[in-house]
Amino acid sequence: MEKITSFTIDHIRLQPGVYVSRKDNAGDQVITTFDLRMTSPNEEPVMNTAEVHTIEHLGATFLRNHPTYQDKTIYFGPMGCRTGFYLLLAGDYASRDIIPLMIQMYEFIRDFRDEVPGASPKDCGNYLDMNLPMANYLAKKFLDQVLYQIDDSRLLYPD
């Protein structure tokens, strides 16, 4: 069986960043999948499920309410390895195109102090598995260490 594209990326050299993972066609529309890599694979500890779950709820809420991207957001959710998230947007994008959006989203997560949207037994299948302070911390770390001074080394997958 052929390896899928995401398993061909050199995870030993991969660093936190914003990468185009793939582009697919759905009818006449391009869907761009982004790899929002928040931790260094196989070097740093992975994120715990509680903070991943919180970032998922906050990120999805932010994107689905964004005036420009709400109708372009197809999916935002965690990677199984817990080193980052996937964002699927309708449209043909490069990584640099969404940096302002990612800064806005991660600032929203960093600064969020209210009740996490959808964190109730009626709205979520695992509503108790949330950690807002750690989600705030990880969003701040990603902003400070990656997004605010991002360059091509964090926008293009390593060869």
Topology, pairings included?
Blueprint: E1 17-26, E2 29-37, H1 49-64, E3 73-78, E4 84-90, H2 99-111, H3 132-145
Antiparallel strand pairs: 1-2, 2-4, 3-4
Write a structural description.
The structure is a single chain. The protein has 159 residues and is an alpha+beta fold. Helix content is 27%, strand content 20%. The protein is built from 3 helices and 4 strands. A 4-stranded antiparallel beta sheet has the order 1-2-4-3, covered by helices on one side. Strand 3 and strand 4 form a beta hairpin. It is globular, with a radius of gyration of 15 Å.
Name its key features.
single chain, 159 residues, alpha+beta, 4-stranded antiparallel beta sheet, 3 helices, 4 strands, 27% helix, 20% strand
Q: How would you state the average pLDDT, rounded?
A: 97
**Oligomeric form:** single chain
The secondary-structure element order is: EEHEEHH
Roughly how many Å is the radius of gyration?
15 Å
- The residue ranges in which pLDDT falls below 50 over 5 or more consecutive positions are none
Count up the helices. Answer: 3
What share of residues are in beta strands? 15-25%
- Could you say which overall geometry the principal axes of the C-alpha atoms support? globular
**Structure classification:** alpha+beta
How many extended strands? 4
